[in-house]
Amino acid sequence: MTERVTIDPLTRIEGHLRIELETEGGVISKAWSEATQFRGIETIVQGRDPRDAWAFTQRICGVCTTVHAIASITAVENAIGSNPPQQALLIRDMVMAAQEIQDHVIHFYHLHALDWVNVADAVKADPEATVALAKAIGSTWKGNTVERMQAVKDTVQSILDSGQLSIFTGGYWSHPDYRLPPEANLMAVAHYLDALEFQRSMIRINTVFGGKNPHPNFLVGGMACTLDPDRSESINQVQISEIQNWVNECLEFVEACYVPDAKAILTFYPDYFDIGASSPNYMAVGMSGAVFAGDPNQTPRYPTAMMAIKPGVIVNNDFSTVQPFDPKLISEDITSAWFTYTGGQSTLTPDQGETTVEYTGPNPPYTWLGDSEKYTWCKAPRYNGLPVQVGPLARVLLAYAQGHATTKALVDDAVKLYGISLAQLNSTAGRTLARAVECLTTAQNLVNETFPTFVKNLQQGDIAVFDPSKWEPASWPKGAASGYSFVEVARGNLSHWVTIKDGKVSAYQCVVPTTWLAGGRDENGEMGPYEVSLAGNGKHPLVDSSQPLEPLRTIHSFDPCMSCAVHVLDPDGEELQVAVS
Amino acid sequence: MPVAYTLDGWQEPTLAENLARAGVSRRDFLKFCGGLAAAFAAGSAVIGSAPGASAAPTANPVSGEQIASALGAMTKPNVVWLQLQECTGCMESALRSGGTSVEDVVLNLLSVNYNELVMAAAGDAANAVLDETNKTPHILVVNGSIPTKDNGIYCVIGGKSAEMVLRESAENATAILAVGACAVFGSVQAARPNPTGAVGVDEIIKDKPVINVAGCPPIGEVIMATVAYILTNGHTPKTDAEGRPLFAYDQRIHDSCPRRPHFDAGQYVRTFDDEGARNGWCLYDMGCKGPSTFSACPIIQWNDHTSWPIGAGHPCLGCTERDFFDRFTPFYSKLPNVPGLGVEATAEKVGLGLVAATVAAVGVHAGVTAIRKSAGKKTTDHTPLEAFGDTEAAPSAPQTSAADTTATPDSGKAE
After folding, report:
1. Any alpha helices (H) in A46-120, and if so which ranges?
2. Residues of A with CB below 8 A from B110's CB?
C-alpha cells in the first residue's frame, strides 16, 4: 500500500525545505523536493550601485556567508575591468578557505551527525573505553581525555534527567537503525561540542580581514583591510601570527578529529554506500575555493593551488573521461518551479535568464504539493540537458580523475577501507565522506599554499590590497558592461552574472549550488538530484514513516542551503552583453 | 487571571521554588495553570484542524494540577527559536558567541525545544515539539521576516505561512526577541521593491512588546547576552525607542569609535588603501554610517573581541538601523549625500539630527504603546512575570519598556 510522507520542516539545514514522499513496503517510490521560501534578492539589486551589490547578495546566505559577496565583487570587477592586487585575492582565498572549513565542520557535527549518532545512548558509555576507541580509530584530537568524556557524559545525563531535552526533544532515539556503540556516541557528542569551540576560534581569520563574521565586509577592487608590517593600524605581524595559529588549528582539527570521526562513523553504516545514489554526472571548475573572474577555462592572472584541477564534467559515472566544461551548456528549467518564461518555453540559458513569479500552488496552510506539475520555488539547472551533482563529491571525483595526488591517496585509502568501488561514492555515505576528504585538502591548501604565499609576498614588501583605477563610475566602460564569476564554494559551483548600465546594476543573476541539487523535475520528467537520491531506484529505505531517519541521512548528505537555492533572475529578461563562454 | 509578582532571576532549581521565592502562592500558581489547561484544550483543537500539522490532539484533557506539577518541576525556561524568511546568519552568529556560548544556552540555561537549524527532530516530530512548547509559557526568539504578500506563500514551514507560525508561537510567549535585521524590519528582502512584502515581527505581533536585537547579523555575544539578561534579571532589558536593548545599542558608533579623534582632526581616508587607511584614519569620506548608527560594535567588537568592521578598514554599513539597505545606500557615499536622510551637513550635525529624531520617536513609541495597551484585551495593572510564567502579564511590559525608553541616556550624551 502506498503511504504518503511529508518531511517539513526538514531540519538541520539552511533555510526551508519540504520533502514529500510516497513509500511502499518500507522503501521510497516517489519523491518531491520542494523549496518553500522565496525572497527575490536579485530583483532588489536592480538599479543599485554595483559596488554595493556584494552586501545585498551576501545576505542570500549567512551559512555560506562570504561566498556570494566574493562571487559578486569578482563579477563586478570582471565587468568594469578592475584588477585587484594579488594580496587582496589571497586574502579572499583565505577567507573562503576558513569559511569552507568552518562550513563543512558545522555541517558534519551539528547538522548531519545526529542522523548517525544517538545522543541519548551516550550516557551508557564508559569514558575510558571511549578514549580507547578514539585512539583505535586514529583520532589524535587533544580533547580525547577521560576527564573530558566523563564531563560530557555528565552533561548529557543531566539533560536526560531534567526531562527537558532542549534541541534533542522529539529525536528518534528509539529508532532501531542507530548503530553506534555507546562509546562512539559519546565520542561524537564530545566532538560535537569541541567543534563548536573550534569554529568559534578559527573563524577569526575572517574577522581580521573582514571585521566580522557572519557577513564580513568586502570591497570591489580589492580589500578594505590594509597591510603594513610597520604600522599598528594595518595588519602586521601581530595578526599574521594569530592567523598562523588559526590556520594550524584548522588543519589540526580536520586531521585529528573530523576525518577520523567521519571515516569511523561510516564504517557502522556501510550499506549507505549503496543507498542514496543520485544523478551520475558531476561538474566543477576547480577545487574548493577556486575563484575565476570570467571564463574559468582561461588561466587567470594569479593561478592558485585551488586551480590544480581543471574545469570539467564527468558524465554517467565515466571516471576515465573528463569532458571540458562549457558554460554555454547550462540551462535552467522551470517545469516544476513557480515561475514563467515570456516565450512560454521551459528552459533558458542563464545569459537569457528571466524570472517572473507565477505561483500556482495552494494557499497555506496546505498538506500536499506533489500532485501538481509545479511544486517548488527552486529552478532546475541542467548541464547539456542532464541533472548534475556539484559540491564536494563532484570536486573530489574530478580531482581523482585528473590525478590530484593528495585527493587520490585519500580516496584510494577510503575505497580500500570500505571495500567499495569509485562509483559507490555516489551515495549518501560517499557524499559525507567526500566532504571530509575535501575539507582536509582545503585545510592543506590554506596552510601549505595560500597563507605562506601571502606571508612571502608581505615579506617582499607587497602590501597593496586595492586597485583604485576603476573605483569611480566615470572610469567604467561606456554603455553597458557585463561580467561574471565562477567560484567553487562549500556546496558546489557558484556563478554570479552582472550587467552594469549608467553606473547602476541593470541585470543580476546567480546560479547557485543548491539550485543544481534541490531543483525538481524538468521538461523531460527527469528528477533533480535530491529526488533521484531518494526515489531513483526504488530501493531507498524508510522503515517507519513517523521517524524518517533514512531520508534525512540522504538529504543531509547534500548539505542543503535553501536560501541560496531560490533566487530570481533579471525580471526584464535582459540579455547579458557578454556571451557565456 | 494575571498573577502579580516579579521573578527576579532564576535562582532556585525549579520553577515552583522560584515562584515560591518570589512570593507566589501555591493557590495563585494553580489558578494560572488552570488557565493554561484551557489553553491546552483550545490549542489541541486548533492543531487538529490545521492541515499539514502533525501533532495528535491531546487525547485527554489535562488538568491544571497536572500542568502545575509538570511546570513546577521544570528546571529551565523553554524556548522556541523560529527561523522565518532569512539567511541563517543570525543563528551562525549565535554559534560564534564567545561570552554566553551556544552550548551554555542550549544545554544548561535553557531548553531550546524548537530551532530548525540544530534540533534533532524533523517533520512531524518537530511540529509536535513546536505545538507542545507553544502551549506553555516560553521565550520566543525569532530570526527572519514575515512575507505578507500573496497570502504568505513566500515562506511556508510545515505547511503553514510564516505569519501563522509566528502568531501561534507568540500566543503564550512571555518574552519575544526579534533577533537580526530581518526580524526587526525585514532587512534585505524588505529593501525596494520588497517583492514579498516582508515585515518585521513587531508589525505582526502588536499586543506584546518585542525586543529588537538589531544587526545583520547582530553580534553573537549580544544575541546570547539578551537571553542571559532575561535569565539573570527576570525581565527583558531596557530598550531605546526602536526596541533595542540599551546594553548594546545606547551608543552611537561615531561617539565610541576609536577613530573619532581623526574625524575631529580632519584626518580622513580619501581612497581605500591610501596613507590614511594604513594609519587608521576616519572612514567618513568613504561612506561610513557610524555617525547615524547605534551599536556597541566598537566596544564589544566581533568574534571574541577580534576586530570590528571599521577596525578592519571598511566603513560601517549601519546594519543595526532600520531600512539601512535603502536609507544608507549607496554605501560608499558620504552621509550627507545619502538620499532620504534629509540632512545636509557634517557628520556631527547628521548625528544630532538623528538623536533629535530618536527623541521624537520615543514619544511616538510611547504613544503606540498606549494605543496597543488600550486595544489589548488584557489588564496591565501588574508587574509582569516575564520570561517564564504569567502569559497574561506580558502585554504590560511595554509600560516598562516605554518608561525605560524615556529614561534613555541618549539626550544626555547627545551634547
Report:
1. 53-58, 67-80, 86-106
2. 166
